[in-house]
Amino acid sequence: SSHEHKLNFKKSKEACLNYIQDAMLQKQWKRAAEFLTFYVESLEKDYSREPIGPSEMIWRIGSEILCHHSHSSMKEFNCFMEQMKTLGVKRYLKVCLEHVFHLLCNGQIDEAYQSLSLAESWRFGEQTAVQDKEMKLIQAYRGLLDYYSWSKQKNILLEHGVDGCADLSVEQEMHSCFRKAAVNLKEIIKIPGVWDLFVKCYVDLLEFYGDHNEACQVLNEYAYNSKFPANPNAHVYLYQFLKRQGESKKSLISALKILHDIVPSHELMIDFNTMLQKSKKRKKRRLGLEVIFAALDYAGWKENVKAWSCLARQLKQIVISEKHLDWIKQEWNSRKDWWPAFHFSRYLAKRNWQENQSLSYEKALVAGILLGKDCKYFKYVSHQGCKAQVKRFRMLKKFVNKHNPVYLRISG
Length: 412
Prior knowledge:
Elements (H helix, E strand, L loop, with lengths): L1 H24 L3 H16 L10 H14 L5 H14 L4 H14 L3 H12 L6 H4 L1 H29 L3 H25 L7 H13 L3 H13 L7 H13 L4 H14 L6 H9 L4 H14 L9 H17 L3 H9 L5 H5 L2 H10 L1 H15 L4 H12 L3 H12 L1 H8 L1
């Protein structure tokens, strides 16, 4: 019966897709390609009147297989993508974008640019308005390739140097690329979203031509506009720009403060801590201690010598002056239950000593101040250092023994 035929067809179609998925998960690309061929052939024999929309599935699966198949070539991939573009106008621009990405990954810059230009001129009734966002992406990536061409021309002028007519020709080409890139890049970054690469390229263009006010405005908008998603990189780019422009430390600290709130483990927290420690304001020095403690809460910082050096230096200053011991106590109270095992075990003491004596020295100083002279980490490292007759380890042991009462006050 017709009903039974439809039911059997549906089951065989689902089974075929399961086989394809299984083959892809096991990276059996030849087997996956064979099953995909069967799947496509079965669709061609389907005489049911039920609407079937398999084109996106074929596109996604097929492009994945062709990317990994050992006998696949760029010619075959290009042919496949051109066929996919004609299967459904609703996803025409998406297919174009994926095709462009593949061309770029294979170093075919000119072909990618040509593909983007063709896609930009595409029109299909109401679909043009529906796919407005995809069209903006097409234009943005074309702007990115214009930026790439501009950068190449700029390097020719700056590094190699050419004379006379050739020099004028390169400069004109460079300015032409600048204008085309700037227009498209400026448009895409107005739309709320994460546009890191596009923003960096646009700011680079503006900076090169001395439009620092516009560059600053773009970066501030990208970092602080509430319509845009929270993005740590936006604050990194703003900080780096302000630093290049020689802006005040107040501006730099302001940019990094927000970055700290979003990503307390960011690598720029070393810079942030250093600036805060140099401040004459007590509030900022207090924040500096909070920043470096917070960074060392993360496993990625466990063996960062600079971070431990920053913490050790500030703790030592506080201990010697005996001022603001309450700062240390406040930070330590929330960590004293887990930092000893996380940072100051005897196992870590042995490993750190063997791999990096500078790291073990800084950590031993911190451990001695926070956990006292009987701390396992401090005892092992100071013993090894004195045994090796390294002067600074003898001084370290003497310092911690002298200021052991501070540990008692911190531990409460």
